[in-house]
Structure formats: structure tokens, C-alpha cells
Design a protein that fits this description.
Layout: H1 2-23, H2 28-49, H3 62-89, H4 91-100, H5 103-111, H6 119-135, H7 153-159, H8 169-196, H9 203-229, H10 235-261, H11 264-287, H12 293-309
Helix pairs in contact: 1-3, 1-10, 1-11, 2-3, 2-9, 2-10, 3-4, 3-8, 3-9, 4-6, 4-8, 4-11, 4-12, 5-8, 6-12, 10-11, 11-12
Length: 311
């Protein structure tokens, strides 16, 4: 249970760091690129020190390499979308959408690998789909919702977000939809690895390869932009990126260790539910995020859906 709690804490810390990065207007691409560089470095250090045993190697056949490249691209794209969604919609809704994207690997398992869901899981798929649309209904805080004489940070950021982004309902929905699709696609790619290559290849080494690809993609963008504009990452962005990378790797490491000690059907729903609930609490309590009644119903349905999907 300790590892599961640490995995939840790391995932929440990622959301908090994205929220801070948005408020400080840190460069997203540089932040995420540094994050993956730090995660790869930490993984290599732990492997060299024996902190993580690798039972199997990694057969670098073309199809596996292609899957690793795709997974790496999805990882950095998913983190970018989550960061942007956190800015525009708030940590509560961004993380809620990311977690209900688990319906996509469930659908892939059903349609591609003929893993027919149970009745409870089928109900969970339906509820999760409804939950997404309720969570993604963006509504600005009205003046009546703010106490007289108070200046709400949430109300201010709903009007104009960092980087000059307008938090219109259509834009927020599009960003949350992108977060949902890309987040689910990452899980589908991992499911593909397990089904097609998992028997003779190390999941840890595959993740390390995907992280390396994510770093390479980000590095190309950062260097190309730097050469074109002369703008290079600030030292503070690099520092926050290193911290994000350590936390990011920790979230994966701790969930893997939790799975080794606890049943997977318990670990994944418990992890997702705890993150959805605690992210909503932290978003409202720490950042004064506004959740409409529809949003709250959506988050509640997401929790129920995640419970059903774990049965």
C-alpha cells in the first residue's frame, strides 16, 4: 500500500507542478524535454545500481522499435496536452479527463484482442464516456459565484490564461478532448506492447526507450527553435524540468512496484480513483478552481466508472 500511496502522490505532484508552471509561464516544451532527460538519467542510474531488476532484455526488432517511437511521441504529446489542459480548465478537470481515458484501452482490448468486458465493465465504459462530456463542459465563474469584495485567482485565469490563451468553452473542450484521446492512446500502446512483445521483452526497458524517444523529440524542437529565434531554455525551467522528471519516473516506478505486491485489478482503479478525488480537492482548496455542478457530477460519475471498470 505504501508504493500505491507514493504513486498517487507523484501523479498529484505532476498536476501541481503543471499548475505552477502555467502560473509562472514556464516554457512547456523545454520543461517537458528536460523532464524526460532527467527521467531517463534516473532510470539508468537505478538500473546500474540494481535498483530495478530486469528479467528480460529488449529485442530491437523493427516493429518493436516503431512501437517505442510511437509511444514516446504519445508520451510527450500527452504531457503537453495535460499541461495545457491544466492551464485552461484547471487541475481538477484535466486530471479527471486524463484518468477516464482508461476507457480507450478497454475498448481496444474488446475490439482488437477480443477481451469481452463484463456487465459491470460495460456499464463503466458507458459511465466513463458520459463523465468525460460532463467534465469537459467548461463554464466560467460568474461574478455572483465570487464573494463580494474578493478577487478570485480562478476567475481571473478563466478570462485570460498564460501565454495569451483564451479559455473559451470550445477551446477548453478541444484541449480536454485531445488530452483524453492522447492519454488513452498511451495506454493502448502499452497494451499493444504487453500483448505483442511482453512475453520476451522487459517493460522497464521499453519504457526507458519510449522516454528516450520523448526526450529526443522535445530536444529537436527546442534546439530548432533556439537556432531559429535565439531563445533558449531558462535556468529555472531546467530546474523545474529536472524535478518533474524525477516525479514522473517515480510515478511509474511506484506503480510497477505496487503491481508486484498487490493485484492489478485493485491497484489501477484505486490509483485512478484516488488521483481523481484528491486532484479535485487540491484544485479547489489550493488553487481556488471553479467546478460547476455539471463538472462535479462528471467527476462523481468518473469515480463510479473507475470502480466498475476495475471489477
Amino acid at each position: 500500500m505504501v508504493y500505491l500511496a507514493l504513486a498517487v502522490a507523484c501523479s498529484l505532484a505532476i498536476g501541481l507542478l503543471f499548475k505552477h508552471a502555467g502560473r509562472e509561464q514556464l516554457d512547456r516544451t523545454s520543461l517537458l524535454t528536460t523532464n524526460y532527460a532527467a527521467a531517463v538519467a534516473l532510470a539508468l542510474v537505478l538500473l546500474a545500481a540494481g535498483g530495478r531488476t530486469v528479467a528480460d532484455g529488449l529485442a530491437l526488432e523493427p516493429s518493436l522499435i516503431a512501437l517505442g517511437v510511437l509511444t514516446g511521441a504519445l508520451l510527450i504529446a500527452g504531457f503537453f496536452m495535460l499541461s495545457l489542459a491544466t492551464d485552461l480548465a484547471g487541475m481538477s478537470l484535466a486530471i479527471g479527463v486524463m484518468r477516464v481515458s482508461v476507457v480507450l484501452p478497454f475498448l481496444a482490448s474488446w475490439l482488437v484482442w477480443n477481451e469481452v468486458p463484463s456487465l459491470a465493465q460495460g456499464a463503466g465504459l458507458v459511465l466513463a464516456s458520459v463523465a468525460f462530456f460532463l467534465i469537459a463542459q467548461h463554464k466560467e465563474r460568474t461574478p455572483e459565484a465570487v464573494p463580494v469584495g474578493a478577487s478570485s485567482p480562478a476567475a481571473q485565469t478563466q478570462e485570460t490564461e498564460p501565454d495569451g490563451l483564451s479559455a473559451s468553452s470550445g477551446r477548453v473542450f478541444a484541449v480536454l478532448l485531445g488530452t483524453f484521446v492522447v492519454g488513452g492512446a498511451v495506454d493502448v500502446s502499452m497494451k499493444t506492447f504487453e500483448e505483442s512483445f511482453g512475453a520476451g521483452n522487459s517493460r522497464v526497458l521499453f519504457l526507458l526507450m519510449a522516454f528516450g524517444v520523448a526526450f529526443a523529440i522535445g530536444a529537436v524542437v527546442v534546439v530548432a527553435r533556439g537556432l531559429r529565434t535565439g531563445t533558449w531554455p531558462e535556468r529555472r525551467t531546467l530546474g523545474w524540468g529536472v524535478l518533474l522528471g524525477i516525479i514522473n519516473y517515480g510515478s511509474l516506478e511506484f506503480i510497477l512496484r505496487a503491481i508486484e505486491r498487490l493485484p492489478g485489478p485493485f491497484v489501477f482503479p484505486a490509483n485512478n480513483i484516488a488521483i481523481v478525488v484528491l486532484a479535485a480537492v487540491l484544485g479547489v482548496a489550493v488553487w481556488d478552481e471553479y467546478l460547476s455542478r455539471v463538472n462535479r457530477i462528471g467527476l462523481g460519475l468518473a469515480v463510479v466508472a473507475l470502480i466498475l471498470l476495475g471489477l
